[in-house]
Amino acid sequence: MGKMIKLLLLMALIFAVSACEESNSQNGNDGKAVPAPKAAEKETDKIKIGFSMDTLLEERWLKDRDLFKEAVESLGAEVEILAANGDDAVQIEQAETLISQGVDLLVVVPHNAEAMAAIVKKAHLAGIKVIAYDRLVKNSEIDLYVSFDNEKVGEMQANAITKLVPKGKYVYIGGAETDNNAHLFKRGVFKVLQPLIDKGDITVVYDQWSKDWTPANALVNMTAALKANQNKIDAVIAANDATAGGVIQALAAQGLAGKIPVAGQDAELAGVQRIVQGTQIMTVYKPIKALTEKAAELAVMMAKGDEVKADRKINNGKIEVQSVLLSPIAVNKRNIDQTIIADGFHSKEEVYKVVEK
Ligand code: BGC
């Protein structure tokens, strides 16, 4: 019986070895280990990031899109980008598409700070982490928030304008109420204004959000502010350069452009040109390249499963979100060259073209 078992085992061994040799010879390999096909392996290993954007309507978001793509690709990963044209339903659908495509990580610029919480949940169910880019996703278990210090942006605007107009009637033209940043910018502004309001030096005579950040809505707001105050306004803070554009259009219609100082934000080319022309007194420059590089670096790290430690925590209504906040830079007529132009954000030629005309 024992002999029988040994014989059977020996036969099985011979069969296995010959089957193995047969398969190796079919592969054109003489029994050596088969090296993995390199190109194919790289393809399947490549990290894929999904980038869900609110809109591409404003100049800055085109920079964000292009520079983020560049930064992700320079790290050997790839990115699929979808923009939703300011529509919540479209953004949710697009983010779902990215999740079902099996991206390794999702980066989101939410149109609506609350609505995108549903996507964070869905992504997590699929095992995908989510980074909030520039704008926070509220009431969600978002994995990381990468942005600028947005409260600081508002402080910079108010500091610049109160230096110029320490007393008088102020108008605040806010951004989109659905964007958490609009609240942070406003908080920063009022942090500086409040002591002056309390002292009776400043009165805020008009304060409204501008739906979807559009210049058209800011124009309507500013027109209403002028009318309600018989044009007697001393200073305007607009939440960004797009809304500042609408404000300045309303002022121009009353022959007041350049006479009432207006602050904006983003260092959009049109905003910087208005500073040169004298219809806007300042903007806030946020180096987008630095933001995209930071976000790309952290996105790829997280997608690979590496732990990311951020230096700040920000409450989003549900959790303390790990946050990385970069520094904004206040820009006026005097430092355009050393900031925006020195960084190549806009060329000297473009910025000063308007005054040469
Ligand atoms: C961004 C601003 C931008 C605004 C409108 C905000 O969330 O931080 O830079 O101007 O959205 O798109």
Could you explain the architecture of this structure?
This protein is α/β, with parallel strands linked by helices and 357 residues long. The chain folds into 2 domains: 42-142 and 288-326, Response regulator (Rossmann fold); 150-286 and 330-355, Response regulator (Rossmann fold). It has 13 helices and 13 strands. The strands form 3 sheets. Strands 2-1-3-4-5-12-11 form a 7-stranded mixed beta sheet, sandwiched between helices. Residues 13-44 have low confidence and may be disordered. Beta-D-glucopyranose (BGC) binds at residues 58, 60, 134-135, 175, 179, 181, 213, 240, 266. One of its GO terms (biological process) is D-xylose transmembrane transport. Residues 1-19 form the signal peptide. This is D-xylose ABC transporter substrate-binding protein.
Condensed summary:
The chain has 357 residues and is α/β, with parallel strands linked by helices. It has helices spanning 2-26, 38-45, 59-74, 88-100, 117-125, 150-164, 180-199, 215-228, 241-253, 269-277, 288-303, 337-341, 348-356, and strands at 48-53, 78-83, 105-108, 129-133, 144-148, 168-173, 202-208, 235-238, 262-263, 283-285, 312-315, 320-326, 329-331.
Secondary-structure map:
Blueprint: H1 2-26, H2 38-45, E1 48-53, H3 59-74, E2 78-83, H4 88-100, E3 105-108, H5 117-125, E4 129-133, E5 144-148, H6 150-164, E6 168-173, H7 180-199, E7 202-208, H8 215-228, E8 235-238, H9 241-253, E9 262-263, H10 269-277, E10 283-285, H11 288-303, E11 312-315, E12 320-326, E13 329-331, H12 337-341, H13 348-356
Parallel strand pairs: 1-2, 1-3, 3-4, 4-5, 5-12, 6-7, 6-8, 8-9
Antiparallel strand pairs: 10-13, 11-12
Helix pairs in contact: 3-11, 4-5, 6-7, 8-9, 10-13
Bound molecules: beta-D-glucopyranose.
